[in-house]
Structures are given as structure tokens and as C-alpha cells.
Amino acid sequence: MAQVPQTFLDALAVRTWCGLALGALGRAREEIDAINVYPVADGDTGTNLYLTLESASTAVEAVFAGYETGAGEPSLADAVHAMAHGALIGARGNSGTILAQLLRGMAQVLAEGGEAAHIDGAGLRLALRRAADSARQAVAHPVEGTVLTVASAAAEAAEEADGDCGTVARAAYEGARTALAATPGQLSVLRRAGVVDAGGRGLVAVLGALVEAFTGEAVREAPAARESLAAVGESAQAPDAASGGHVRVESMRAADLCAEGSDSGGPAYEVIYLLEAGDTAVARLRERLDALGDSLVVVGGDGLWNVHVHVDDAGAAVEAGVEAGRPYRIRITHFGLGDVHTGGERPPRERAQRAVVAVVPGEGLAALYTEAGATTVLARPGEPPASGELVQAVRRAHAREVVLLPNDAELRHTAAAAAEQARAEGIRVALIPTRSAVQGIAALAVHAPERRFDEDVVQMTAAAGATRYAEVVVAERQSWTTAGICQAGDVLGLIDGDVAVIGPDVTATARTLLDRMLQAGGELVTLVVGDGAPETVAEQLEARVRESYLAVDTVVYRGGRQGTLLLIGVE
User: What is the band of 395 on the pLDDT scale with cuts at 50, 70, 90?
Assistant: First the structure.
């Protein structure tokens, strides 16, 4: 259904834009992958852009969901901060990292108004200029004929436009589309392959979605592809009505055309990680990584950065991050062999029969699940994984059959989408709707790979369903709950997702919560203690169980930075 035209940019327009852009990149993903030849012909630019935008869109949706139960709606600043942060933590590959910085640059301008409800065309012009400039500054050695060129052209065209947001967005789109058509003339590797720049093609799709968000009218992207292909010769075929306007390369992928081009002598590994560090440490890190390799892009700020570099010595790139601050979500990809992950073994040549993939909320539980044989996806506080991350984890498990444990009620739809995609790739996937990591622990405890797949899934589902779960958190704001009104700073005890106890003290609240859960019976209590919980809380709860519930056993795990003070499971 067409969007209602509007002349300004507000939080709802940001949400609409993200959804439309995600759809546009989803439709163009295979095409963009196929024309990906620079900086490395690894055929994943479309996928990386999609996963980056998916993370941004998920973050924006989470902000809107947080307002559904209360009054009001998110401000423009709320929405753009979420968009930029989501893109930053989910950025993949060279182009995805640059896209994250483009969105961050826009957010810096759009959020300057504080609680302002919206901005006009003049504000959007400034945002597009900041986006292009900040992305160029994030790249160690900018190259023309890439997404940076397309972004700069979009900003220049927008600056020439005089009107509302729809007018400015359309000018930016047309400027980007024209610049994209010229990229083969600026970069020889594109000209030899007969393609336009893949990252630039993705940005044109994102800007086209911005036009549609304002005007309600879908843009046509085929003319830019047709012009570019005509400019570079006969090695590619112009799109026609039957192809739906996609770029098509004769007989083989563009990545194959460039397999023996200028990239063949480049670094062997792509290294990406999130980094918690200060500005001074990051400045030193840039110098260190620039000396180690190429395609260096460092984006972010305010203590959180996304680092991307191509190197021959992956270990040195990670060590540089350790010296600068705290790196995590480390991804190391060998350009010839696919993903490898620090701290784990590479998948065997022969697929395993069965594997378990689980989302876990903290490093401590990640270690526990990994020790039990599961492939884990870390969900840090406020950073839920996107469906693409879950699909990649399923692939990484390298098994014919996979049991997927989302361990969070909010991830139900994300996990379902990932399972559906994995099934389309020929992997048999069973999704067990675990709503907490303690339910996942119970399911994993009865997992038996030697059983028939259906029987194993039934047993794991039954174990998870028989486990009641609770969590202890601190209220961030005043709100209505099922247990009454809470104030910011109150300690909340939730049972099966609903607030059951409100108290001033973590240990006392946890004790009351545990008593209520054990009133219905139980044989085993599982305690997962987060970093923010009092040192003695586990000891006092264990003592409570020993004194009052003689037939009940207790097991304690350290969850690390898991977002909640305490998780409790009762089986």
C-alpha cells in the first residue's frame, strides 16, 4: 500500500524509511552480490548491506515498541539514534560499515533539535551533507568510483534543491543515480567487469526508499543501470522488462570476472569487531591498522566503534583492538575459505547430523552453552541479533538438522524468519520457542543427538516448557505494572514476563520472587547471576532453598554482562 505523502521528516518517517529500505535491499540483494568486485570480489556486498539495515530497522522498531504500552511516541532524536546505533552494532563488511557511518552522520544532524518533532527540507540537506562527509572521513584511503562518490553526489544534488523533504530526497536520489552510472569510468576494476559499484548501487536503493517514504511513490532504478552498462561496453546486458530492471552479467557473476583481477594479491582476511574505547585510543588504532592492511574503515563514536580492515595477520588486527580497548563480536573471514571465528574450530568438511544454535544474553552463558556443544549468538543488552545473524549461526553449525533456541520472547519472529531462510537452503530446522536462557539450559540438558530428530525436539520442548523463568531488573522509569506503579530505580521481579514483585532491594526482591515460584513446586532452581547483582545474592538464595525447600537442588552460573541482575529458573 502506498505511503501517505508528507513534507517533513519525523520519527514515523524514519521508521517508514527503514522498512522500505530494508525491502529494497532485500529485493536487490542478489543483484548487488553478483556485481560486487571492489574492494574484494567476494560477492557479499548486497547481503552485508541488507544485514546492516536490518539491524538498524530492528532497533527503530524496538523504540516504537517501547512506547506502545505508555503514552506518547518516540521523538525524532529517539528514532535516529536507534537507527544509527542499530546500524553500528550490526554493520557487516566494507559497504555495510560505511552505510552505518552514513546513517550516523545523518543522525548527528537530525538529533540536534533535541525533542523537536520533525525537520524540514533544509535540515535534510544538512543531514545528507554530514553523512557524506563523515563516511569519507571514516575511510582511511577514500577511492573515487565507490559508495563514497555516490554519497557525495547525493549530498551535492540535495544542496541544489529548494523545497520540502520529498523534493530534497528526490534530488539526492537522482544525483546518486547519475553518479552510480559514472562509477565504471572512475574505477578500472568496475569497467573491466562491466558493472557499477555494488555499494553505490545499494545506497541508491536506500535513497530511493527515502523518496518513497516522503512521496508515497516508488522510484524506478533501472535507468541508472542501463546508462552505466551502456557506458562500459558489451560485457554486461542492459535490464529489460522481463528481468525486472536488474543488472545482469553475461554467463557468470561479476565476482568471477574479477577473480584474477587486481584483488588477487590483496590481504587474505577481513577482520571486523565492535570496540569499546576512547577517541585517543581509536586514533592510535587507526594508525596501527593502516600499517597492517587496507580497506580500513572505523566508524562510530561516544565510546563504541565498529572496526573493519583487510589484513594478512588477523591476530595482529585483533591484538591492536585489545590494546585500544575492549573488542567483541569479532568476525574473521578468509576470503578464500569463508568464516572462521576466534576461539572456535572451523566447521568440518562433513556436515554433522545435528546441532543446537542458541541466543544467549551474556558472555558467561555463552561459555556454558558452548561447553555443552551449542553454537551461540551473543545478544548484548539492547542489541538483539538480526535474523541474518541467526541464519549465519545456523550455517556455522554445519549440520543437516538444527534446533534453534531464541531464549527471548521478543526474538520469536526474528528466529522464525531465520529458520525459514535456513530451511530454504536445505537445512532441517526446528524452532523451540524458549523465552529465557534458563529454559534453553533445561532444553539443552535433555538434548540427545542419537535420538530421532522429532523425538529430540519433543523432549527439549517439554523440558523448556516445564521450566518457569523469572528475572530481576531495575526499573528505568515510572510506569504501570501488573504489580502496581513502580518508580525509576525500583527493583522489579518478573515471573514469565510479568512483574510480580516491586521492591527496594535486590536480594529481598529475589527471595520473594523465588518463594512465589516454589509455591507451585519444583525440583531444581537455576540461578544465573549478572555482573550488576550483589556479590552475596546467590549465596543467600541458595541458603533460602536449603532451609525451606529440602527436596530442591540449586545450581549457580555466572552470566556476565547479561542485561538483567538475575535470572531464575525452576524445574
Answer: confident
- Of 83, 81, 82, 63, which Cα lies nearest the Cα of 73? 63
Is 475 in contact with 492 (CB distance < 8 Å)? yes
Query: CA-CA distances (angstroms) from residue 200 to 46, 205, 206?
Result: 10, 9, 10
Q: Give the pLDDT band of residue 232 (cuts 50, 70, 90).
A: very low
Structure confidence at residue 314 (pLDDT): 83
Q: Which residues, other chains included, contact 404 with Cβ-Cβ below 8 Å and sequence gap of 6+? A: 356, 357, 358, 390, 394, 415, 418, 419, 429, 430, 431, 432
pLDDT at 1: 40
Number of H helices, E strands in the chain: 20, 21
Name which of 147, 142, 172 is nearest 157 in CA terms. Answer: 172
For 424-463, how does the pLDDT look when each residue is reduced to its tens digit (9 = 90+)? 888 999 999 999 999 999 999 999 999 999 999 999 999 9
Residue 146 cell numbers, joined: 565507490
CA 86, CA 63: separation in Å to the nearest integer? 11
Give Cα separations from 229 to 148, 205, 218, 223, 331 (angstroms): 20, 17, 23, 10, 35
For 507-531, write each residue's pLDDT tens digit.
Answer: 898 998 898 889 888 889 999 888 8
Asked if 442 and 569 touch (Cβ cutoff 8 Å), the reply is: yes
Cell 525447600 maps to which residue? Answer: 549
Task: Give tens-digit pLDDT for 346-364.
Answer: 444 478 889 999 998 877 7
DSSP string, 508-559: HHHHHHHHHHHTT--SEEEEEEETTS-TTHHHHHHHHHHHH-TT-EEEEEEE
Q: How confident is the model at residue 42 (pLDDT cuts 50, 70, 90)?
A: low
Residue 10, all three cell numbers: 519525523
Q: Which one is predicted more confidently, 67 or 206?
A: 206
Give the closest residue to 437 by CA, choosing from 558, 544, 331, 545. 558
Beta bridge partner(s), residue 298: 307
Distance CA 488, CA 497 (A): 19
Residue closest to 194 by CA, chosen among 265, 263, 244, 247: 247
Cell readout for 120 is 524540514
How far lies 372's CA from each of 172, 177, 367, 459, in Å?
Answer: 52, 51, 9, 17
Phi, psi of 152 (to 5 degrees): -65, -40
